[in-house]
UniProtKB/TrEMBL annotation:
Part of the binding-protein-dependent transport system for phosphate; probably responsible for the translocation of the substrate across the membrane. It is a multi-pass membrane protein. One of its GO terms (cellular component) is plasma membrane. SUPFAM superfamilies: MetI-like. GO terms for molecular function: phosphate transmembrane transporter activity. It holds the Pfam family BPD_transp_1. One of its GO terms (biological process) is phosphate ion transmembrane transport. Belongs to the binding-protein-dependent transport system permease family. CysTW subfamily. Keywords: Cell membrane, Membrane, Phosphate transport, Transmembrane, Transmembrane helix, Transport. The keyword Transport applies. It comes from Paramicrobacterium humi. It is found in: Cell membrane. The lineage of its organism: Bacteria, Bacillati, Actinomycetota, Actinomycetes, Micrococcales. This is Phosphate transport system permease protein PstA. NCBIfam families: 3a0107s02c.
Length: 357
């Protein structure tokens, strides 16, 4: 039997060792940092530029990795490593502001993140001390009221658009929802303020007006998220239930909604997280106060975003105390939003349709 000659495989070239990219990265950063240190020692720069050293080190790493991969692995693998490096760099650049923001808020907000902050209001507090319990209470009350208003309206609207909506009316509703999605939040606040001024007189600012302004912002978000989830439900499920003689309303109640409840719940929680940090509509519709107020229909009501804003722009003689309270309020708001996102994920996992046998 004649021996067969193996064909050369142009892609089966050498491979870089697994730790090689990391070694190149560490070496590039070390060389770049050393260069910037020497520039500082020589007096070329006033101080050590850490950001510049990182950027130069990243560029040096990309070049060295590309050249090394080209020489050892070939052009195809080298191009792949270069694109991977660029994509990773873009991801880190996009993530850097978020990381910087979180670190700044945690470091600055921890100065007043204590029991007093969560048990005291700002009534009769001028300088140091006090807390934001009145603002936290107002935020919870107005946000929950907005959810009670917007979730039924948004969910029923999405059910109509998906299950019943045909013709000009459905197109008009879709158009209006798209328009409401893009309106500035201050417009929602002005709408609520104007509506309650017409009903109860000029200058009326109450917590319920703030809740209505938040509901106006929430409704299109709930409609869009619920509509997308309802459309994901396979038509085969609807057709099978209808073929058995089940009325359409019962199909929606017993088949469509249970199948999509996880996504709908997630969308609702994300809509709440979207509006809980709004400042402009609450500043216009609900106003601000340093007193505790549990009544949505009487008197002005403070909210956490507005309290943070007021503490930052209206600093007294002891400005650091106001700044510390503002940072602590911002940290509390971030933690609330994070908690809502975690709850949304847990609810989505719990209510997700079980596909196992």
């Amino acid at each position: 039997m004649a021996a067969t000659t193996a064909l050369p495989n142009t892609y089966a070239t050498g491979r870089l060792a697994k730790p090689a990219p990391w070694l190149i990265l560490v070496g590039s950063m070390a060389v770049s940092l050393l260069a910037f240190v020497l520039l500082e020692v020589a007096g070329t720069t006033e101080s050590l530029n850490i950001t510049g050293a990182i950027v130069v080190g990243a560029i040096l790493f990309a070049v060295l990795l590309f050249v090394s991969s080209w020489l050892i692995e070939g052009s195809r693998r080298a191009k792949d490593r270069l694109i991977t490096t660029l994509v990773s760099a873009a991801f880190l650049i996009a993530l850097a502001p978020l990381i910087s923001l979180v670190i700044t808020v945690i470091v600055s907000g921890s100065q007043r993140f204590d029991l007093t902050f969560f048990t005291w209001s700002m009534r009769n507090i001028v300088g140091e001390g006090g807390g934001f319990i009145h603002a936290i209470t107002g935020t919870v009350l107005m946000t929950l009221t907005a959810a009670v208003i917007s979730v039924p309206v948004g969910l029923l609207t999405s059910i109509y658009l998906v299950e019943y909506g045909r013709g000009p009316l459905a197109r008009a509703i879709t158009f209006l929802v798209d328009v409401m999605t893009g309106i500035p939040s201050i417009v929602a606040g002005l709408f609520a303020y104007a509506a309650f001024a017409l009903l109860f007189g000029p200058g009326t600012k109450i917590g319920f007006a703030g809740a209505v302004s938040l509901a106006v912002i929430m409704i299109p978000v709930v409609v869009r998220s619920s509509e997308d989830m309802l459309r994901v439900v396979p038509n085969e499920l609807r057709e099978a239930a209808l073929a058995l003689g089940v009325p359409r309303w019962l199909v929606i109640l017993k088949v469509v909604l249970p199948t999509s409840i996880a996504g709908i719940t997630t969308g609702v929680m994300l809509a709440i997280a979207r509006v809980i940090g709004e400042t402009a509509p609450l500043l216009v519709a609900a106003g601000f106060t340093n007193n505790m107020n549990y009544n949505l229909f009487e008197g002005r009501m403070q909210s956490l975003p507005v309290a943070v804003y007021n503490s930052y722009v209206s600093q007294g003689t002891d400005s650091q105390s106001y700044l510390d309270r503002a940072w602590a309020g911002a940290l509390t708001l971030i933690l609330i939003v994070m908690l809502l996102n975690i709850i949304a994920r847990l609810i989505a996992r719990y209510f997700a349709p079980k596909t196992g046998r």
